[in-house]
Amino acid sequence: MKFRITLIIFAGFFLLLAGINAEAARVKDLAQLHGVRNNQLLGYGLVSGLNGTGDDMKKSVFTLQAIYNMMTRQGITINPDNINDIKVKNVAAVMVTASLPPFAKSGSTLDIQVSSMGDSKSLAGGTLLMTPLVGPDGNVYAVAQGPLTLGAFSFGGKAAEVQKNHPTVGRIAGGAIIERSIPVTLGGDGTLQYQIRDADFTTASNMAESINNSFGPNTAFPDSPGTIKVTIPKAYKDKLIDFIAAVEVLDVNADTTAKVVVNERTGTIVMGKDIRLSTVAVSHGNLSLIIRDDYNVSQPNPLGEGETVVTPQTNISVIEEDGQLVLLDMEKGVSIGEIATALNAIGATPRDLIAIFQAIKASGSLYGELIIL
Q1: pLDDT, tens digit (0-9, with 9 covering 90-100), for 169-184
Q2: Does the pLDDT of residue 327 top 50, yes or no?
Q3: What is the edge-to-edge ordering of all strands in the sheet holding 268-271?
């Protein structure tokens, strides 16, 4: 019952959107400048100070080796033949990840995520020891260190255990200091290139048109459905940042392909507002759904002035075993929202809806893309 009410609400929401034209979105929300992106960093380190929840040195050999290397660098002499004699329970090997944003300068800080690699039961209360973070090119771009924040715990004995959230992954806000920045060159050849996040011919054309209307003809050109080349005007040669800021706030009528996304494992159905159906009759189990398009024609008197008016009318009916009838009248087209509402009204389950949508798509009556997760 709860799912039926929720889906009816969603169907009503999409029905409302069906009567609204594509709304304008800003350029900065639809596209990004080529070369302006985050860069992934990765590091291997140790978390110490755990309360007996660290890695088992007999099973996690890499943790034992890392402890030996760290102690050697700190001037502590250990016979390599006796490395297996190291017995610690308060240390865990972890992988440290971070995202280096564009234009970040040396001395700035980054948030980092710390994830256990071995068989540690919990990282609660631990402190990450100094860990270099490297990029894909092998260079060190940041150094991480500090106490972890988990928001989780795990306690227990041999017979029982209590756990909240996920105790083997934590974060450190501002836990890494940037040591090297990545240079970003913009407008070096007098042009900029915008990459549309969801490539679409219509969106690319509309974006170029919006830029040309604001800065003059031939300023922007849609090189492909996913890229827009923009020539920097002479008035902005020395004010590149001002030009980019002015372009980013321009409104663009974005467009996307009509899609239906279904997930049979969770029973989730998400429908785009532009999804439409042609005339189709559906029977699923003890449910029967009929969609029929009718046209009401109004003609003027033989000697009167006026025009012939044709009004399309769509009738949707759903019949169950006892003859229950649900009827909807539409002035233009049929949306999946109305069908979902009609089927929900007589108790169709999520699995029923997903099967029906797949069958409608296979019949060629669904105008849009069906994505199954």
Answers
A1: 999 999 999 999 888 8
A2: no
A3: 268-271, 259-263, 369-372
pLDDT digits (tens, 9 = 90+) for 102-146: 888 999 999 999 999 988 888 988 999 999 999 999 999 999 999
C-alpha–C-alpha distance, residues 320 and 317, integer Å: 10
- Under DSSP, the state recorded for 310 is E
pLDDT band with cut points at 50, 70 and 90 for residue 258? confident
CA distances from 332 to 18, 229, 272 (A): 10, 39, 17
324 has a pLDDT exceeding 50:
no
Rg of the Cα atoms in the chain: 31
The greatest distance separating any two alpha carbons of the chain, rounded to the nearest whole angstrom, comes to 113
Nearest to 326 by CA among 338, 337, 340, 316: 316
Amino acid at 69: N
pLDDT digits (tens, 9 = 90+) for 45-85: 999 999 888 888 888 888 888 888 888 888 888 777 777 77
Name the 3-class secondary structure at 13: helix
Nearest to 318 by CA among 344, 341, 288: 288
Rounded Cα gap, residues 247 and 73, in angstroms: 52
What single-letter amino acid sits at 114? V
CA-CA distances (angstroms) from residue 54 to 39, 57, 114, 117? 31, 9, 14, 11
Q: What is the mean pLDDT of the chain?
A: 80
Pairing label, strands 309-319, 325-330: antiparallel
Query: Is 24-36+185-253 a domain of CATH 3.30.1360.40?
Result: yes
**What's the Cα-to-Cα distance from 31 to each of 158, 209, 238, 240, rounded to whole Å?**
55, 15, 23, 18
The encoded tokens of residue 225 equal 């459905």
Contact yes or no for 92/50 (Cβ under 8 A) = yes
Length of the chain: 373
Count of CB atoms situated within 10 Å of the CB of 212: 15
Spell out the domain ranges in the chain.
2-21+258-372, 24-36+185-253, 39-178
DSSP state of 77: -
How many Å separate Cα 17 from the centre of its chain? 21
Other beta carbons within 10 angstroms of residue 320's beta carbon come to 16
